[in-house]
Amino acid sequence: MAWISSLGCTHELNRSTGHNNDTSTTEDDSNNNNKNNDNDNDNEGGNKEVANNVFIDQIAALCQSIGPKYNILVNSPVIAQAILESASGTSELAVNAKNYFGLKFKKTSQGVKRCPTALDNPYIKVGSEQDASTGQYVSSSMEWFQFKSMEDCVTGYYDFINISTYSNLKGVTSPETYCTLIKQDGYATSIDYTQKLMNVINSYNLTKYDTYNGGSSNMGEIKLKLALGAGHYKYTEGKRCNASLDPNETREWYLNDRICDKVEAGLDAYEGVLICRLDDTTGDTLVDLPGRKAAAEKFGADIYISVHHNAGVGCTASGGTQVYCYWTDKNRAEAKKIYDAVVTQTGLVGNRSEKVANGNHLYECYAPTMDSYIIENGFMDSTTDVPIILTDAHAEKTAKGIVNFLVERFQLVKKSSNPNPNPNPNPNPNPNPEPSMVFVSVEEIKTEQLVAVTLDTLSAVANSYGVTADFIIQSNPGLYKLTDTVYLVNKDTVIYVGNH
Ligand SMILES: [Zn+2]
């Protein structure tokens, strides 16, 4: 565990968040004696559309891609199950075990895992969600499948129902029939499970994901999961073009967003690309850095690209492009490829000493769990850069460079030109991912990777950085509340303490 304050261009203030409450539920196919196994969260008809959109888009794309291989031809009920069972990806099982369907750890009669894509060990639900009053961290004997990615979990769902009990689901194309049959088959014991699913389908208009032509999917294999963020938001202090060079004082977020939009549009021409936008694409809401990183991790991104514009050359002719990365040989080489791909298009050569720069001090690069890069695409206080970076053409070229890099890196193939009646399942996922996520797993507890931090310690550290303990708690999804006065954290976690 280490304390760090971000120092670079990527400062963000946090927005208030709360630790989530688990509402995950479970399949039960026989001799159930667990009264708590049904869908008891209240999402149906709920008002969480914005927060749900990212989750729904991701699940939907995977269902469209994987379902047909199992001859499951309707997606809306499966998406609805995921929404219900995982509280749209916020339940403990979803967050800690990437189990979005409440799949119990079960083996076949041959003694092999019913979900081959699951990890070998079950996740033991620790029930922290129900103990806000006592602060107890209680283990439960219940065992659940855990997965390393959402994709593996969706595959796991189809494997889970790929037994004779559920064989009547194959080939069904009516959502209502599917919901009725899966209830009859015993997936859940809730009396009104069918109606609950239908309510969710209707509330979120999920039937739009039920488009099929002979069972073929328009997604196919997923080749790239890109976490893409436009740095900051509309109202970030500073972070705008210098007034003497741009009377409009164009906001950095606007420039960043314009490029990200063009990257999305450019990648739309390629097969097998999923994009998770990490910022609020309206620019109205700040998504803080821990929230962005957590969303990218939850998304299972292959690569994290954060688009920024720089400042700090004091209205001189200095400037140009820089790419920051966590400082390893491999990352440096990749960052140079990004730099080259972009500058080949834009001509905005970096004339600072480092074209590829050490980003170890930047939150978005620090201790990355995926390949993560920050592109500083010209300086907002450079006399040479500002007239260029304000142009739409420059944004277009930058985006082309980024797309070219990704095409090469992930060997992307253009979509065939024959018209496809299916809408792109993930054209512009709504951002605003909820940043409240807990990544503490039971394995960490078992292996004593966790250390305890008292609230007193947090308060003392917060004081020394001029922030509140609450700020630190809210800003760090990796801080797990054990009791009102004790928090757990992985001993390798970097604790973000804000701007300093
Ligand atoms: Zn920035």
In short:
With 500 residues, the protein is an alpha/beta fold. The chain is built from 14 helices and 13 strands. Strands 5-4-6-9-7-8 form a six-stranded mixed β-sheet, with helices on both faces. A three-stranded antiparallel β-sheet has the order 10-12-11.
CATH topology of the largest domain, by name, is Lysozyme
The number of strands is: 13
Q: Based on helices, strands and strand pairing, what is the structural class? A: alpha/beta
SSE topology string: EHHHEEHHHEHEHEEHEEHHHEHHEEE
Strand order of the largest sheet: 5-4-6-9-7-8
| Total DSSP helices | 14
Our measurement of the CA-to-CA distance between the termini, rounded to an integer number of angstroms, reads: 19 Å
Largest sheet, strands/sense/barrel? 6 strands, mixed
Average pLDDT score = 77
Second-tier CATH architecture of the largest domain: Orthogonal Bundle
Please give the share of residues in helix: 25-40%
What count of structural domains? 3
CATH class identity of the largest domain: Mainly Alpha
Low-pLDDT runs: 6-48, 127-132, 212-220, 418-448
CA-based gyration radius: 24 Å
Strand content: 5-15%
